User: What shape does this take?
Amino acid sequence: MINISTATPAQHPIIQSIAHITWPVTFGDLMTPEQLQYMLNMMYSDAALAEQTGPKGHVFLLAEKDGQHLGFASYELHYQGEKKTKLHKIYILPSAQGQGVGRALFEQVTEIARSAGDQKISLAVKRDNDAVKFYEKLGYHIVGTLDMEIGEGFWMRDYVMEKSI
Assistant: This one.
């Protein structure tokens, strides 16, 4: 059985470890090594995680089975003052993909969002990421695009996807 729990600051190293294992597999063919390292540092440094879970109000969930952490998600309720939950991140260890971990995290975020009165879940995904197909299977639809410079001359070119809940 997959157990989902809210991550504590003491568990940030688990999140960092999963990110550093998952990102090269997920994005190795989609980003240069320099961009990959830049983004990992930008999003998963101790300071970045403290900022996300503090002032920005992101909540991280950890998925665990048989004592092993297999993935994480982060979300923000009432995103930009709307009845919308923003799913900021969801990453599953490559060895655990296809075992229902991602689906369990999505279901947990959906239940939390519903309980908080939100009516949609929104996420951004790199346009050429195969995960777009997985999100579509879960009922998400492309509602726009996002092109954003993130520093050092690097860009995020994403689809914005939403699902009514």
Notes: The chain has five helices and seven strands. The first strand starts at residue 3 and ends at 6. The chain has a mean pLDDT of 94. The chain has one domain: 3-119.
